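User: Can you fold this complex?
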Amino acid sequence: MQHLLAALGSLERNLAHLGGRLLVVSGKSTDAIPRLAEGLRVDRVVAQRWSEPFGRERDRRVAAALGPIPFVLHEGETLAPPGTLRTQTGGVYSVFTPFARAFRKSVEIAAPLPAPTLEPLEVSVDTASSPALAELGLRENPRLLPAGERAARTRLADFVSSGLATYDTDRDRMDRAGTSRLSQDLKFGTLSPRAAWCAVRDAEAPEEARERFLTELLWREFAHHTLWDRPELLERPFRADFEGFPWRDDPKGWKAWCEGTTGYPVVDAAARQLLAEGYVHNRARMIAASFLTKHLGIDFRRGEAHYLEWLVDGDWAANDLGWQWSAGCGCDAQPYFRVFHPVTQGQRFDPEGTYVRTWVPELARLPTRHLHAPWEAPELELRAAGVRLGEHYPRPIVDHATARARFLADAKRHLAR
DNA sequence: TTTTGAGTTGTTCGA
DNA sequence: GTCGAACAACTCAAA
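Assistant: Here's the predicted assembly.
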């Protein structure tokens, strides 16, 4: 909400700069938009398509409520309109690589258009200004990134000039600012994927780094196109053989995973970063999702909903695709037995422990070699770091090897039905 | 129609 | 300590 309001404020300033004006109305879109359209005596209502199921339903209802006034939807949420890429036999792509190959071959991405000129409104209508956070009973979170089109463009420019060159190697490092951090801008539409694509495509940076970023944009694209064609994926696993999987109900495990007290430092860091920042590093999301679904055996849809509730950048398409992939039931022909080791992953992608120390400060004084597995640290070192396991920081709620074996057995049994 | 090549992100075990 | 194989065989997409 904070990000949305700040983005609206930015839009209001930009419009004023162009001689326009942002009108704010409250109410259901099916009532408010027709009322405004009639009040302004417009000949059409123009909007950007929202391709996700919720948005499609909303657009359908608004169009119906507008009656004779045309409701014109433009593309822009994705690089190519969803539903336009098809296999040679007319089928829907279900594997990323062929989708990406076909996309690069057939889609030409033009530079974004300049801002339109605006005409002053001649009709006065009854509108409000957008509410302040406090009016909605919310407190400002100072950790959120600046929102709005200008902030997004600055972020893109900064990324292109400094982060892009090392993107292909640093993007996996949880302890570095190696990612673009553009996800919330793409989600809110304050940055178009075309602008990001063109800026990176035409940038002076190593080809591997540029290609890597463009591929990530295509993953976002793949998620939206896939959900467009198969909206039922928000409720069902992509892989039909995962239907009816024996997920566990583990209230204690669920609570620990949500609040960051599983005893696995990287998993806990991810949980706490989510609650604090509305953002989690991509690598940490995968580790957290793997832990919830595989170590704890909890249904991916619960983790998916939790992430969607807390993420600033959370959209249905990418979130669902990511969670299904992590759970092993998504668009991925890779085997189900790929279970992330939370300690190894931490050591590999947070080698100095910076990420863990930031989010799990009670372990901050522990030497790096024990940071990702504090239960294996000698008592003396724990004491020196001021850590008593079970008091300052929990012991692991599950044993990695045991949990892994349990999941593999469950999956093997279920998939062999 | 049949064949062929390939598939984001990993871990463990044993030589 | 390093390295390759096993994990399991399947489905997709294109030729």
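The beta strands of chain A are 45-48, 71-74. Chain A has 19 helices and two strands.
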